[in-house]
Design the sequence.
């Protein structure tokens, strides 16, 4: 028996092929665990990311699987260049930071990790069937989120996380505040709509009930920014001439009617149009502070991850305590300067462009493939809401975006490669 033939004495040890399959299964399992546990546990996200990272590295060092990566495709080269350029801009911002240690920690534990997560999930999501199985996991997780929200509504506190309803008087589910729950639900509603359409018989009706429950929970969060984001995402879906169009328009109309009814009956409607609303005034003050930071150091910014540390130096009003800008793009400009903001917007532009081109091709197939449409609409909603909230600076929200962005990019590239 040869020493390097991968066989085992008496068949007791697995061959290399079995090990490779095991690595791939662990990687997929880590992805599904991340998706399922994302609303409930921050620690689980880091553990799942560790599983994804280790298995991806093992695949890259194995000569047999080294080139089995979507990132060798020429079509993804502009996206890879944009991501690398953005990280380089962040690294330069670290070197020029007002707090080097704080920026270095933010760069390595946030942006570097997020981009690595996106790269890894893109490869995992390119495998046949993974994107659809991710939808199943997302639906299962959404069911538990709905149960958490309903028990919170019924008993005053959630069953899993024990967060009380009476603090905000708006549903928070497994999150600490209603806006974070709204962001999560906003992003998953379009994929769940597509998944409902793809099911048949009783399974379709079950998915329809779950999607309706998710929409009702979303309405109960009373988040204006998330409502605008969802509206834009559904409009993006409705513009495509497909059999899904009338379903999308119906859901958009129903969501607007239910949101309007909730705002009227709870007295929140006046808050939407009031210029004296505390939330609006606070945001205006935070945005002014962000612009002052950018004006003071326009090229490389104050340094990645230093916005809260510098906030009181540039405070112009509102609560006098360290806080985020509640506009991810203004905060990016303040922390990483116009170079960092410009490269980040370039990265987002490349992402959306990649999804749209792939979606156009997938919908032109016979029969058309609708999977990418839901992911694209949800992620578009996230990018819109990021202009009025902290999406990219909250761990679970950032993991949500970069994970789903990887699934969408992998689905787009994997479908093209198999055609």
Sequence:
């Amino acid at each position: 028996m040869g020493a390097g033939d991968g066989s085992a004495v008496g068949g007791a040890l697995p061959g290399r092929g079995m090990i490779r399959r095991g690595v791939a299964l662990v990687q997929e399992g880590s992805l599904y665990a991340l998706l399922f546990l994302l609303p409930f546990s921050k620690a689980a996200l880091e553990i799942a990311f560790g599983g994804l990272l280790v298995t991806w590295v093992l695949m890259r060092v194995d000569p047999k699987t080294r080139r089995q990566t979507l990132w060798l495709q020429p079509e993804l080269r502009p996206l890879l260049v944009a991501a690398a350029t953005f990280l380089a801009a962040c690294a330069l911002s670290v070197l020029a930071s007002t707090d080097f240690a704080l920026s270095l920690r933010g760069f390595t534990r946030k942006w570097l990790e997020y981009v690595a997560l996106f790269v890894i999930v893109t490869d995992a999501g390119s495998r046949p069937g993974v994107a659809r199985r991710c939808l199943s996991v997302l639906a299962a997780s959404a069911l538990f989120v709905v149960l958490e929200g309903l028990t919170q509504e019924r008993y005053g506190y959630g069953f899993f996380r024990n967060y009380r309803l009476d603090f905000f008087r708006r549903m928070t589910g497994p999150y600490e505040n209603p806006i974070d729950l709204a962001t999560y639900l906003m992003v998953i509603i379009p994929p769940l709509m597509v998944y409902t359409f793809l099911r048949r018989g009783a399974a379709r009706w079950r998915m329809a009930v779950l999607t309706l429950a998710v929409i009702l929970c979303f309405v109960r969060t009373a988040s204006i920014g998330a409502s605008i984001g969802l509206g834009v995402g559904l409009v993006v879906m409705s513009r495509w001439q497909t059999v899904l169009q009338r379903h999308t328009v119906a859901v958009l109309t129903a969501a607007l009617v239910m949101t309007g009814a909730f705002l009227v009956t709870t007295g929140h409607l006046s808050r939407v149009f009031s210029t004296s609303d505390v939330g609006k005034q606070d945001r205006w003050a935070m945005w002014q502070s962000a612009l002052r930071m950018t004006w003071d150091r326009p090229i490389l910014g104050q340094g990645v991850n230093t916005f809260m540390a510098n906030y009181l130096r540039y405070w112009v009003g509102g609560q006098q305590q360290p806080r985020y800008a509640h506009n991810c793009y203004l905060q990016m400009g303040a922390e990483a300067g116009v170079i960092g903001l410009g490269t980040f917007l370039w990265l987002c532009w490349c992402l959306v462009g990649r999804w749209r081109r792939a979606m156009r091709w997938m919908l032109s197939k016979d029969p058309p493939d609708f999977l990418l449409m839901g992911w694209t609409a949800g992620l578009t909603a996230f990018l819109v809401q990021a202009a009025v909230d902290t999406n990219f600076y909250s761990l679970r929200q950032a993991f949500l975006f970069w994970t789903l962005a990887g699934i969408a990019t992998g689905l787009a590239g994997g479908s093209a490669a198999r055609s």
The CA atoms of residues 279 and 369 lie 41 Å apart. Residues 1-13 have pLDDT under 50 and may be disordered. The two ends are 41 Å apart (CA to CA).
